[in-house]
Amino acid sequence: MDASEQNKSKVVVIDSLQSWDFHVTQATNQNCPVVVHFTASWCIPSVAMAPVFDELASSYQDLLFLTVDVDEVKEVATKMNVTAMPTFLLLKNGAAVEKVVGANPEEIKKRVDGLAESTRVSLA
């Protein structure tokens, strides 16, 4: 594995409502929880959270990590009732089970860890 593969983000960038539906449906069918970062290029706290989100995606490879730019894919933000950036949604079986608004790395890590843990328990 070369360096570019090691540095490749595990976060999937959502660029349309169709790609959102595809990834969420696929994850739901595979009983895979989803963590979503709703962001905007003009929002400094959102941009600052991107490396934290990438790090989480590398650490929790049994979860699907998605990022949605609210200006590029307004339909998804509207569908999920996202009105502030950054917003982090944790989905299980296609439904939101947790919502964290704001750039709070420790809280995000705690919630993602809880989601991963609850998934491991339910699969055991």
Note the main sheet: 5 strands, mixed
How large, in whole angstroms, is the Cα Rg? 14 Å
**Total DSSP E strands:** 5
Order of helix and strand elements from N to C terminus: HEHEHEHEEH
Global shape: globular
Task: Please indicate the percent range of residues in DSSP E strands (runs of 2 or more).
Answer: 15-25%
Average pLDDT level: 90
* Largest beta sheet: strand ordering: 1-3-2-4-5
Give the CA-CA distance, first to last residue.
32 Å
Low-confidence stretches: 1-7
Structural class: alpha/beta
Count the DSSP helices. Answer: 5
Helix content class = 40-55%
Quick recap:
The chain has five helices and five strands. The protein is of the alpha/beta class and 124 residues long. It has a five-stranded mixed beta sheet, sandwiched between helices.
